[in-house]
Fold this sequence. Notes:
The protein is an all-beta fold. It is built from no helices and eleven strands. Strand 7 (about 65-70) and strand 8 (about 75-80) form a beta hairpin. It is globular. The termini are far apart. Helix content is about 0%, strand content about 55%.
Amino acid sequence: VQLVESGGGLVQVGGSLRLSCAASGSTFSINAMAWYRQAPGKQREYVAGITSDGDSTNYAESVKGRFTISRDSVENTMYLQMLSLKPEDTAVYYCFAETRWGPSWGQGTQVTVSS
């Protein structure tokens, strides 16, 4: 499974962005998917996750109420709608997929929130 993120960029505090993660290859093998992020000098952290059928989602406390994860199984694409962005949301955002044969990661997309 190959994962390609897009949609990152520079945004002001309070702004919004929508990240996309396009999956290709053996997409039938994908189970749950998630978004992680890694800020400079920090460990990669979990942001949000979604089940294979899209019926269940989970969020880190730091993004609850501001971020929304969703998934289009027909288009094999996962999204992260980010609202009310804060400087501490600045990070490289990574797409993750749990597949039948193990984890798969995207290359990441940079999100920078300027004050």
